[in-house]
Amino acid sequence: MRNIKRIPAIDGQLGWYETVPFQRPMPVQNAEKDEHFDVIVAGSGFSGLATAGRLAELQPDAKIALVDALEIGQGTAGRNAGFIIDLPHNLDADEPNPEHDAKIRDLNCFAIERLKRIQEQQGMNVRWHAAGKYLAAHEEKHFSNLTAFTTTLDAMGEKYAVLEGSDLAKKLGTPYYKRAVYTPGNILMNPAALAITVASALPKNVTLLENTPIRSVDLESKTLQTDKAKLTADTLVLATNAFTEEFGGCRNKLAPVFTYASMTRPLTSSEMAQFDGVEPWGLTSAHPAGTTVRLTSDNRLFIRNTLDFLPELSSTEALIGKAREKHRRSYLARFPQLKDVPFEFSWGGMLCMTMNHESVFKQHAPGVYVVAAMNGVGVAKGTYLGNYMAEYISGVKSAELEFILSNSNPSWVPPDPLRSVGARIRLSFEERLAKGEV
Ligand SMILES: Cc1cc2nc3c(=O)[nH]c(=O)nc-3n(C[C@H](O)[C@H](O)[C@H](O)COP(=O)(O)OP(=O)(O)OC[C@H]3O[C@@H](n4cnc5c(N)ncnc54)[C@H](O)[C@@H]3O)c2cc1C
User: Which CATH number covers residue 249?
Assistant: First the structure.
């Protein structure tokens, strides 16, 4: 058995999880006794949820387990910024490839449709809002990134609007940004609420085992040792994101990057005065190391920034506190009139990156499959990759699956300590470049 040293932890106060606007409909169950399953999916983020859900649809008689160290909505899936992005995120006008980008868009839209249908069927309020998204720049030197984006959008035939100055300020309720590209297809939501909703819709042949850290693993016999039970399976799927290396599911491919978020309490009606006529919105930065901002539909302001490389795969109170101070500076720069509104929650989570932004999607060994490395866009990507992982395992062939298989070759990352040193230098360089966008 291979010991798993780094186990997921709760990093801070999980704002979305704490503000889920409904009672969780299903009881929390953990692994109490030794048990055999046809399939075990390890990891219940959007990848694991989609893998288990689609497998259960394709194989209604299979006995399936979905196992997680935390509760649904407490992992990275429930800690993110709550964007379900329809367009490819790494649009690069230097190497335009509209055909490839259109395929990614179609897969993202497939994921959005699937999640939309589930949340409508379940009738749970995940604060789903077809709000679109702003890609915005504060400094003129980053306008070129906006132009690169619109060049690619033109090549794909996508709709967008460029907003500037007071027109943009009217949409956002802050004059901080000078120019933005608005695209209409993005969804905003509470990601912890959405993850719980997706879990609540899992067919009856899926057993959900939460608060069940996997302490050791044997990939050959497909055996997982948890605190109280030994779980075995005919087929094992690792949907464990940055923790996949711990399981021996891939080597020298992943670059897990810690990032942090803070969210205010709901603004009062007088504090909302500056947002008179402003719809809830979500904005990502024209620079990849810049700040993500949201005005949520429950009138909170959300800030995400800070990139750090933590090989231990969990953060500390001190680091979360440091990130919170940085969030405060970003917040005050954008909303100086609301300087007295405190953050209610601050937390951290991991972006599981690869050097070439391709995900891990593979059969690793007989009966062992891996789906990992969502490169910062895991709500949509995790949902469609999980769906097609289930089809891959079940022998369902499609052009989409072929496309995914031929675009899942992450490039090599050097082992530690080189990986950590290189990543830290690169991240701090990028943050310096981002400057006013942070
Ligand atoms: C602050 C922040 C903002 C982000 N914003 C966005 C956004 O707006 N939109 C977007 O699409 N993406 C965003 N992301 C990225 C997104 O959250 C991830 O891409 C997504 O969660 C990946 O999904 P996943 O299912 O592959 O992995 P995860 O969600 O990480 O799920 C993996 C699961 O495996 C479990 N696990 C690992 N090891 C073990 C073990 N030993 N035993 C048991 N269970 C284990 C973990 O507990 C975890 O729940 C953001 C991320 C962060 C941190």
Answer: 3.50.50.60
